[in-house]
Amino acid sequence: MYASSLSVLSWSSSSSSSSRFIQDSFRQYPMLRRSLALAFIASCNCYSPLLLTRELTSRSRATSGGVHLRLFARQDPSSWKPSRRDAMGWMTAGVASALLQGYATPADAVISDFAKLRELEDLQAEIFEQSVPSVCFISTEYTSMAQQLNLDSNSLPKGVGSGFVWDDKGHIVTNFHVINKVDSAVVVLTKTDGTTEKYKAKLTGVDPDKDIAVLKIDAPASLLRKLPVGDSSKIKVGQFSFAIGNPFGQDHTLTSGIISGKNREITAPTGRKIKGVIQTDAAINPGNSGGPLLNSQGQLIGINTASLGAGVSAGVGFAVPIDLAVPTIEQLIEFGQVQRAILGISYLERVPTASESERSGIPRIEKGIVVLEVPPNSPAAAAGMIAVKRSKDPKSKPELGDVIVGIDQYEIKDPLDLSAVLAKYKPGNKVSVKVLRGPEQTPQTLALTLGAFQGSAFTKLENERG
């Protein structure tokens, strides 16, 4: 049978109630039939790829209620002996055929499923080919860091990141952490014919709180192909997602997966939280940062930013949703900075625990925001806000200054409230800030004119505006 003979195996169904139930199920759910047929073929390919060819043929229900399964052995040497792998293949065939009893699986249904698979492959290939000219390779250098460490600049590895074309004026979007503290950055564009062009990047602006940066290159508009922007608010868990970038320096690598989760939270380089983040299992590795996350239509739905894992993808990647990023990108291009209203203070990111309060000496409060610093010339300083007072005596505990508990009609219980409330205003707006002052927690109201966020990248990149 294994050497050169032809074997025809047939399992016929009985009229038992269980078999009839299976028949009814297969008639009602065609996808079940197709899935089992594909599973059978996959199992045979897995266990006996060199031995078997398959043919599933339908038989008339009038003559037989079973599946006619033909397994053709190839002309192998008579000395050939079946292995455990081959035996497993036959066992799988038996199980699959028993499950399929009572229904004749049409060969054309299997062919149709493989045709759909080819269509999916073609779709993925088309998404990649259409997107390649829009995805950038970003190489960065840290010359000043080498000088500080008294090292040869060539001894420090170059940084690698990704980005994508935003408009035909040469603006490139990437992550803030890709260009933070760098001395120079080179953006590499890939033409439709596969050749590349390199351009020195200038800095347009950054928003560290959202881990977003915009660069500028002087490239001809004919080479600048922007990605179509999708609607990240409409994504659903389970939908396909595609990441394109330069992981570990491997330029234009495509990885695919699904949307694994929504409304996740990650930490920005500033320590602030980025909310509403997309989770995907498309592999995101070092070098993917700043690259695009695409949907099945090739539309931009997110900026690949981070992943869980010790330096390699663990199947849990995160992308800043494009709906969240667009206002920031547009403001950076127009103004060079985000138009985010600020008080101009530093404050505790959360209410300290009892033990933290004991160690630091800062009194524990039930709600509100403890003002730690009020820089000179800040909006808060102009309004007369008071920070925590620290004594020169190391044994003395700090004295509480102002605790912010409200802005206009809005209550401020914690830093999340402050961020949400300030998002309702623009720089230059006048507000009334309610504080509890000093150890006695005396209520005060301060008239304050909101300032504008000034993003700093700690970089020596030339600024687009000079």
UniProtKB/TrEMBL annotation:
Alphabetized InterPro entries for the sequence: Chloro_Bact_Ser_Proteases (IPR051201), DEGP1/8_PDZ_dom (IPR039382), PDZ (IPR001478), PDZ_sf (IPR036034), Peptidase_S1_PA (IPR009003), Peptidase_S1_PA_chymotrypsin (IPR043504), Peptidase_S1C (IPR001940)
Claim: Protease is one of the keywords in the record: yes
Molecular function via GO: serine-type endopeptidase activity
Transmembrane segments: none
Gene Ontology biological process terms, A to Z: proteolysis
PDZ domain location: 332-439
Oxidoreductase as UniProt keyword: no
Superkingdom per UniProt: Eukaryota
UniProt keyword terms in alphabetical order: Hydrolase, Protease, Serine protease
Family named by the database record: Belongs to the peptidase S1C family.
Protein name as it appears in the record: PDZ domain-containing protein
Phylogenetic lineage: Eukaryota, Cryptophyceae, Pyrenomonadales, Geminigeraceae, Hanusia
